[in-house]
Amino acid sequence: MNAVPDIIEGTEIHASSGTLEAYLTRLDQVDLLKVNGKVEQVIGLVIESVGPNCSLGDVCMIKSREGHDLCLSEVVGFRSNRVLSMILGDASRVGPGSEIVATGRSLSINVGKELLGRVIDGLGRPLDGKGPIVTDEVRSIYAAPPNPLTRRRITETVATGIRSIDTLLTLGKGQRVGIFAGSGVGKSVTLGMIARNTSADVNVIALVGERGREVTEFLDRELGPEGLRRSVVIVATSDQASLIRLKAAFMATTVAEYFRDAGMDVMLMMDSVTRLAMAQREVGLAIGEPPTTKGYTPSVFAMLPKLLERAGNSRSGSIGDLHGSRGRGRHDRACGGRGPLHTRRPCRPLQEACLRGTVSGGRPSREHKQGHARGDDARPQGGGPPVPRHDGDVQGIRGSHQHRGIRQGE
Ligand SMILES: Nc1ncnc2c1ncn2[C@@H]1O[C@H](COP(=O)(O)OP(=O)(O)OP(=O)(O)O)[C@@H](O)[C@H]1O
Ligand SMILES: [Mg+2]
Fold first, then answer.
1. Which protein residue's CA is at the shortest distance from atom 7 of ligand 1?
2. In the beta sheet, which residues pair with residue 139?
3. What's the pTM?
4. Integer CA distances (angstroms), 201 to 214, 231, 332, 393, in order
């Protein structure tokens, strides 16, 4: 609750940057006539309210009947003249009649080089106890991908510092790569190793839906102080509301875009996209979308390419995008997901993204090929070549061979 102003009043920090224009801009943004709404129903994480006057993606503040700020919510839909919003935080004291006030802004994050070495949560609030993050710039977490015609082609390589990958599966600056593996196979360890040793200028790491224990393990063991110094870590653990887990990925992409616009080469890592897809599925199901394959709602398939397309090269810099994706197969269920080295089929939405070409498989799995062969998609059978093509977007790294290769490379 205390951190609420950090998120929605980011423009105040912007305004305090000194120039009169900043204050004039702030004045323009002031809404003098506020139409507030009233909460009618709360079902799960979804709040149905009469009013306020708002649009999709707007952040609203929910107040108690005594007028205290309770929590934030984000408008996710409208039904029969009612506003549907989802809670960003703890909804325990929200009830019928609570006031809901539109802020007229979408979620935003303070961006700047001050973020380096910091660990923030899915709403951009500091988690590491190192004090507030004061920057000159505030960005909305929703942005359009770079114009396709202004994207530079992928012509330079980027070192991951893992010799087996650099030698056999060399990555290019601005390339998007999926790491597909089952639970406990070593995705997080691989991402940590890359974060520590990569030749990119900045790492932006989103830990989405991880267990709380894994976060400190990742920070202390995999990343270390050396890696953290040139990284920004965004954490939304599995206990957080699904919308916060979802926003963490958007926050991370926004931070990566900031550093790319500053002309840097950025390594954006997401661990894991499967959990991100699951978060969107929860949101979709809660607002009444129909479930499709594996229960994933249509919005999952719409959200992934929108988000993933924001990475890659722009005119100024590059965002190389590494995604951890976890598959659940029959074996996963049988061994509780903790078996020895096994490969898994990537989660369905990422597989879809592969098929669409947002994330494509450079070295497709057998199951993936079978998917093509079955006619799951009209794309060429067999996927991409065994060695990554830098004119393509992405290569999929998967499999126990690669894992063993990494071990040999260490
Ligand atoms: N290169 C490696 N060499 C030796 N051991 C490794 C290596 N990579 C991973 N491991 C071992 O495997 C364990 C699990 O790895 P990790 O947490 O990275 O798996 P994961 O794929 O991220 O799993 P999950 O999907 O559950 O998050 C690690 O704790 C580590 O002990
Ligand atoms: Mg992991």
1. 186
2. 109
3. 0.74
4. 25, 9, 37, 20
